[in-house]
């Protein structure tokens, strides 16, 4: 087999042809063979010609970590999430601050596609970075950090001198009717929401943050989630959940600062100055009984949600973004959108708006029933829990028809800090 020369490879790669074309030009069929050929008998290493392309991918896929607000909130949802909740084991405030400083440094590096920590030549020590994303683009990675009520007081103890800083809003959610919460998916002192267009990149980020936290915080629970990827559809359409319905149509306009100040960002005077420009996050691990749903008629499914499955339009309307008409009745005098339809109950009088940013999950089989453990990692952000999420969920828990097909298994609330400034660290306002 004739070996390709460096010039030939470089010109192929500069034209940015596909990986298959590169292999064809080399006259070989597998990546392993290609690397072997270049490394053993070849006049050059493949890495010599790759950086141009990698650099391009990197600059295309970076979401700035520093800023007024944390990324990963109004950011257009990436394809994957790895959500992790931590319990703090640090015994003093100084170590807790150190954790946030170390996390900030690592997060800034990873979101730019740089490895965590310094490169070390000492082969007798574990590398700083775990290595599985070397050479990958950061894939629009965002890392969003928050603190739960138990960071401020746990079992009556003020471990870090933060009791006075606890926002009145930041307390455990009330128990809603039909909640079936399990300890293993509930609560947490800290959270990290890692979102990226590549799952390995998202997981790598949390894995490395957990590693950095050793001795200061331990994982309490974690959940992976997904949406359809850009490979499956490059159209910027609303993603569908595992019931097959478009999910995320109605949301505050993330390009309208006035709307975001009203519904999303904590404002001066709200009661926690350190949290101004931050927000409250609710996460609910909601199991969906997809086998039961799949045996349900399309009409019943659409009446349960209050929208048509295919178009995503409200019942009685044509297009996904047409406004609803809750008074409209069909020829039999029935409301198009039934009284118990999810969208009608969720909307109420329309005063409470939350920013929903949820992902589907699948987690093998539910050992109790032998059915899929699958559902929605429901995540929403809001300026006030008591005036937004809680009234909506109170209504849903009471009368939402969807309750026949879902059950809430996990829950947690966090206050997400404002963004960090370069040179500062995430969470700084809480400790200053
Ligand atoms: C597995 C559970 C859930 C499923 C499958 C689900 C599904 C949906 C779907 C398909 C829509 C219509 C499209 C859209 O506007 O996004 C919708 C709307 C909505 N959902 Fe959910 N949802 C779930 C849980 C929740 C929860 C827990 C809340 C809040 C407490 C919530 C709040 C809303 C709101 C506010 C709307 C928009 C209502 C409107 O104004 O039309 N949902 N949901």
UniProtKB/TrEMBL annotation:
<dbReference type="GO" id="GO:0046872">
    <property type="term" value="F:metal ion binding"/>
</dbReference>
<dbReference type="GO" id="GO:0004325">
    <property type="term" value="F:ferrochelatase activity"/>
</dbReference>
<keyword id="KW-0456">Lyase</keyword>
<keyword id="KW-0349">Heme</keyword>
<keyword id="KW-0560">Oxidoreductase</keyword>
<dbReference type="InterPro" id="IPR048327">
    <property type="entry name" value="Dyp_perox_N"/>
</dbReference>
<dbReference type="Pfam" id="PF04261">
    <property type="entry name" value="Dyp_perox_N"/>
</dbReference>
<keyword id="KW-1133">Transmembrane helix</keyword>
<dbReference type="InterPro" id="IPR006314">
    <property type="entry name" value="Dyp_peroxidase"/>
</dbReference>
<dbReference type="InterPro" id="IPR048328">
    <property type="entry name" value="Dyp_perox_C"/>
</dbReference>
<dbReference type="InterPro" id="IPR006313">
    <property type="entry name" value="EfeB/EfeN"/>
</dbReference>
<dbReference type="GO" id="GO:0004601">
    <property type="term" value="F:peroxidase activity"/>
</dbReference>
<comment type="similarity">
    <text>Belongs to the DyP-type peroxidase family.</text>
</comment>
<keyword id="KW-0812">Transmembrane</keyword>
<dbReference type="GO" id="GO:0005829">
    <property type="term" value="C:cytosol"/>
</dbReference>
<dbReference type="GO" id="GO:0020037">
    <property type="term" value="F:heme binding"/>
</dbReference>
<keyword id="KW-0408">Iron</keyword>
<keyword id="KW-0479">Metal-binding</keyword>
<keyword id="KW-0732">Signal</keyword>
<keyword id="KW-0575">Peroxidase</keyword>
<feature type="domain" description="Dyp-type peroxidase C-terminal">
    <location>
        <begin position="238"/>
        <end position="420"/>
    </location>
</feature>
<protein>
    <recommendedName>
        <fullName>Deferrochelatase</fullName>
        <ecNumber>1.11.1.-</ecNumber>
    </recommendedName>
</protein>
<dbReference type="InterPro" id="IPR011008">
    <property type="entry name" value="Dimeric_a/b-barrel"/>
</dbReference>
<dbReference type="InterPro" id="IPR006311">
    <property type="entry name" value="TAT_signal"/>
</dbReference>
<feature type="transmembrane region" description="Helical">
    <location>
        <begin position="22"/>
        <end position="47"/>
    </location>
</feature>
<dbReference type="InterPro" id="IPR019546">
    <property type="entry name" value="TAT_signal_bac_arc"/>
</dbReference>
<feature type="domain" description="Dyp-type peroxidase N-terminal">
    <location>
        <begin position="70"/>
        <end position="227"/>
    </location>
</feature>
<keyword id="KW-0472">Membrane</keyword>
<dbReference type="Pfam" id="PF20628">
    <property type="entry name" value="Dyp_perox_C"/>
</dbReference>
<dbReference type="GO" id="GO:0030313">
    <property type="term" value="C:cell envelope"/>
</dbReference>
<comment type="function">
    <text>Involved in the recovery of exogenous heme iron. Extracts iron from heme while preserving the protoporphyrin ring intact.</text>
</comment>
<dbReference type="GO" id="GO:0033212">
    <property type="term" value="P:iron import into cell"/>
</dbReference>
């Amino acid at each position: 087999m004739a070996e390709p020369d460096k010039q030939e490879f470089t010109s192929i790669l500069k034209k940015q042809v596909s990986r298959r074309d590169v292999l064809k030009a080399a006259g070989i069929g597998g990546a392993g063979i290609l690397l072997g050929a270049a490394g053993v008998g070849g006049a050059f290493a493949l890495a010599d010609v790759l950086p141009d392309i990698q650099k391009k991918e990197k600059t295309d896929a970076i979401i700035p970590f520093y800023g007024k607000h944390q990324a990963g909130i109004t950011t257009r949802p990436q394809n994957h999430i790895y959500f992790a909740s931590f319990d703090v084991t640090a015994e003093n405030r100084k170590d807790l601050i150190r954790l946030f400083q170390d996390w900030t440094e690592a997060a800034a590096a990873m979101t730019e596609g740089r490895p965590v920590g310094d490169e070390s030549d000492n082969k007798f020590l574990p590398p700083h970075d775990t290595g599985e994303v070397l050479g990958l683009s950061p894939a629009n990675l965002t890392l969003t950090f928050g603190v739960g009520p138990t960071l401020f007081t746990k079992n009556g103890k003020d471990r870090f001198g933060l009791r006075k800083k606890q926002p009145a809003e930041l307390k455990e959610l009330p128990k809603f009717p039909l909640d079936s919460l399990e300890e293993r998916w509930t609560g947490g002192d800290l959270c990290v929401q890692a979102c990226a267009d590549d799952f390995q990149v998202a997981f790598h980020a949390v894995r490395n943050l957990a590693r950095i936290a050793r001795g200061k915080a331990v994982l309490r629970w974690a959940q992976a989630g997904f949406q359809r990827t850009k490979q499956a559809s490059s159209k910027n359409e609303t993603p569908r959940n595992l019931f097959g319905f478009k999910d995320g149509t109605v949301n505050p306009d993330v390009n309208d600062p006035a709307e975001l100040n009203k519904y999303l960002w904590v404002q001066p005077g709200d009661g926690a100055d350190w949290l101004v420009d931050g927000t409250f996050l609710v996460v609910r691990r909601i199991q969906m009984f997809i086998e039961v749903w799949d045996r349900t008629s399309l009409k019943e499914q659409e009446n349960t949600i209050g929208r048509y499955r295919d178009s995503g339009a409200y019942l009685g309307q044509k297009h996904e973004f047409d406004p609803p008409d809750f008074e409209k009745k069909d020829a039999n005098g029935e409301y198009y959108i039934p009284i118990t339809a999810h969208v009608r109950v969720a909307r109420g009088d329309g005063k409470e708006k939350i920013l929903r940013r949820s992902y589907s999950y699948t987690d093998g089989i539910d050992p109790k029933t032998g059915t899929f453990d699958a559902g929605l990692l429901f995540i929403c952000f809001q300026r006030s829990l008591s005036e937004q999420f809680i009234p909506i969920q109170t209504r849903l828990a009471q009368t939402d028809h969807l309750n026949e097909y879902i059950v809430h298994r996990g829950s947690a609330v966090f206050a997400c800090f404002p963004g960090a400034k370069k040179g500062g660290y995430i969470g700084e306002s809480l400790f200053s």
